[in-house]
Amino acid sequence: MSIEKAQKARRKFLQSLGLTVGIVGASLLGYIPVSSARASLLRPPGALDEADLLASCIKCGQCVQVCPVQAIKLGDITDGFGLGVPYIAARDQACDFSCDAVQCILACPTGALTYEKPDFLGVRNGAPLAHAPILKAKANDPEPSLNLKERFGLARLARPESCLAVQGKGFKGQARGPGFKGEMRYVDVDRWAPIPVRDHPYEREICDLCVTECPIADAISLQATGDGRFIPMVHEQCVGCGVCEMICPVETAAIVVDAQAVWKGGA
């Protein structure tokens, strides 16, 4: 390692240490409720369970720098012990796997984000994926799957009464309006470069954006309920990326992703 790189790494460590000392000190003085930080934040792919993640993450920000859609943010002072720890606000910008290889995991220097947990860390029931998820954008590649062993969340139809498909309605226009800044990869536009969602308008007789824009094959589908109505069904291959929540055109989103939720069976 060069002297310049070593000095840069040392500065990052000292900054992280200073922030940690500062927030612990402030919490002890009663200024910040560290133990009551925001719960159930969606963490990046491959994140360890929450307690292990907080213990392993050194808040270096490498995962933030390599994300092609800038989906990963770092926790702020209101997140208590989660200060500087990466998270994803899926409604604002989901992980659409534009990197193909889950670059955030590759960039993590400590294993806080990992393809496979070490043996001494337990795996929650329902967290493992039945088989490697198939990335739709890589369907024609020799190896179309993602090397993910566990889901990092699970989609759920939280507001069926708001869902356009449930109402038997279609959708036409910009999914989140002209002011939405989120980006996504559209293979029919560019195999590699994500574009703003507002630059890719839709026209659907029945709204199925959560199905068609999901980057993972067989993770979600529409099931007919009669009278021209449909209901989104989440399947076991859902990894919790949050694209369905981001792309849902109704406010508030009809479908959401629950952080670190597990598969409990059913269709």
TrEMBL record:
Keywords attached to this Swiss-Prot or TrEMBL record, sorted alphabetically, are: Iron, Iron-sulfur, Membrane, Metal-binding, Transmembrane, Transmembrane helix
Q: 4Fe-4S ferredoxin-type domain spans which residues?
A: 47-77, 84-118, 230-258
The protein's name: 4Fe-4S dicluster domain-containing protein
* CDD domains on file: DMSOR_beta_like
- Provenance organism: Azonexus hydrophilus
The keyword rRNA processing is assigned to this record: no
Q: List the transmembrane segments.
A: 12-34
A Pfam family cross-referenced in the UniProt record is Fer4_7
